[in-house]
Amino acid sequence: MDENGPLPPSEVVRDRLDRHLRSWLGAWPPSGAVTVVGSPRRRQPGWDGVVRPFAGVATPQGAVLSVAPERVERVQAGGAGLDDVLDGVPDALDAPGAVVGRGVFRYAESVPPFEPVGEWVPAEDPRVPAWLRPFGGQVLVVLDGDQYVAGVGIKRHDELGHELAVATEEAWRGRGLARALVARASGRILRAGGVPIYLHGRGNAASARVATAAGFPDRGWMILGLPTAT
C-alpha cells in the first residue's frame, strides 16, 4: 500500500461515509428529527462476531436509528423527539434496565502532517498485545525493541467504514504517539478507498484531543448503541 499517494477529495470521502452509513444502518441521511429504520444488519454479527440489535447515528440535523424490521413500530412508539425515543429503546428491544449509550462520532476527510511512526505487522504477530489481535489483518504498532508500546487496530465494519482504536502503554503517554498512529492509519484507509471513523466517550478528554489532532473534528455527531454481552 502506497502511504504517500494523493488523498481523495473531501466530497469523495463524504460519499463513502454516506454509503457506509446507508449500508450499516439501513438508511442515510436522516429524513427528519428521528428516522427509525428496519435493517437485517441488526440480526447479523458485526466485525467482532457480536450481534448488535440496535445502532444509531445522530447529527445536529437528525438521527437514524436502526433496529430489526419487526421492532420498528415499537421503537417509533416511544415518541417524536430523540430523547423520548431513546428512553424507550431498551423496553422496545426487550432489554429493560439497559441505557442507550451516547458517544462522539468522528470521521476524517484529510490527514494532518505527522512524521510517520510505527510499523504495520500481522495481528497475529507475537509482539502484538491481546487487545489488538481480534482486529485481524494488519495493525500499526510502535515497538521498543520487541516490546509493544502503542498501537492502532482497525474495525472493518464493511468495505468502506473502518473504525480506528488506539492505545498507548502508560509509561509512553504524552509523546504524541497515539495521534501520529491514528493519522497514519487514517491516511492508509483514505488512500485504500475507505473512510476512517473514530469513536469515543463524551467525557474522554484525552481521546478527544487525540482525535482532533489526528484530523477527526467534532462535528456534533453522536454514535448510539446498547450494551452487548461478550
Given the helix and strand composition, which structural class is it?
Answer: alpha+beta
Q: Could you give the count of β-strands? A: 10
Q: How many domains is the backbone divided into? A: 2
Distinct helical segment count: 5
Described by strand count, sense and barrel closure, the largest sheet is: 10 strands, mixed
Radius of gyration: 18 Å
Defining key terms:
Aminopeptidase; 2 domains; alpha+beta; 230 residues; 10 strands; 28% strand; 24% helix; 5 helices
Summarize the structure in words.
The chain is of the alpha+beta class and 230 residues long. The protein folds into two domains: 10-107, no CATH class; 119-216, Aminopeptidase, CATH 3.40.630.30. The protein contains five helices and ten strands; from the N terminus they run αβββααβββββαβαβ. A hairpin with a 2-residue loop joins β2 (54-59) and β3. The longest helix is centred in the N-terminal third of the chain and has 16 residues, at 10-25. The protein is globular and about 55 Å long.
Give a concise summary.
The protein is of the alpha+beta class and 230 residues long. The chain contains five helices and ten strands, in the order αβββααβββββαβαβ. It has two domains: 10-107, no CATH class; 119-216, Aminopeptidase.
Would you spell out the secondary-structure blueprint of this structure?
Layout: H1 10-25, E1 34-38, E2 54-59, E3 62-67, H2 72-76, H3 82-92, E4 101-107, E5 119-122, E6 138-144, E7 147-156, E8 161-168, H4 177-191, E9 195-201, H5 205-213, E10 222-225
Parallel strand pairs: 1-3, 8-9
Antiparallel strand pairs: 2-3, 2-10, 4-9, 4-10, 5-6, 6-7, 7-8
